[in-house]
Amino acid sequence: MVITAPARYTRTAIVLHWLIFLLLIVQFIVGWSMPHIGRNTPVTTLISVHFSLGVLILALIVVRLAWRLTHAAPPQDASVPRWQANLAQVVQWLLYLLLLVVPLLGWLNASYRGMPITFFEMFPVPPLLATHAAGWSWTGDIHIAVAEYGILVLAGLHIAAALYHHFIRHDRVLQRMLPGA
């Protein structure tokens, strides 16, 4: 009896997945290292890098979503319980959603505060709303809360599940997304 390995994600999906993952690590390090953004906080180098990384992550997640919607994910390994497969899909789609929402909230907050955003000093990114536009002061707090309690929790679950499949179940779920596996 010949057992074939489950299908893999496409090379493009794998590159986008790991690139976004690495950028998120850098983004969280920069975010935790930069000064608190208050009423009169100047745009420092760290804040500017944080903004630029946010723009890049937003652009890449849009590309990743477009790729995902036009290229089906490989079928789940038949040995994975249905509830785990369903939970994995929920976590993945929530991650996609939050990776869109959090950069947009950051962009809205920078716009609200009148902070200029440039993409790595190459070109300006237009504000999404007027400085101190009524009703938008909440965006910074929600940006931080959703990043720290949404993205980090979901990414932690995603990583824990991948490691569980690799080290406990010894199946090929993780290998489907590993480069060169």
Tell me how many strands there are. Answer: 2
Unreliable stretches (pLDDT < 50, length at least 5) are 1-6
Strand order of the largest sheet: 1-2
What structural class do you assign from the helix and strand content?
mainly alpha
Coarse shape = elongated
Provide a count of the helices: 4
**Largest sheet properties:** 2 strands, antiparallel
Over all CA atoms, what is the radius of gyration?
A: 19 Å
Q: Estimate percent helicity.
A: 55-70%
Integer tally of domains: 1
Mean pLDDT: 93
Describe the protein:
This protein is mostly helical. It has one domain. Helices cover 61% and strands 3% of the residues. The protein has a two-stranded antiparallel ribbon. A hairpin with a 3-residue loop joins strand 1 and strand 2. Helix 2 packs across helix 3. It is elongated. 17% of the residues are buried. The N terminus is likely disordered.
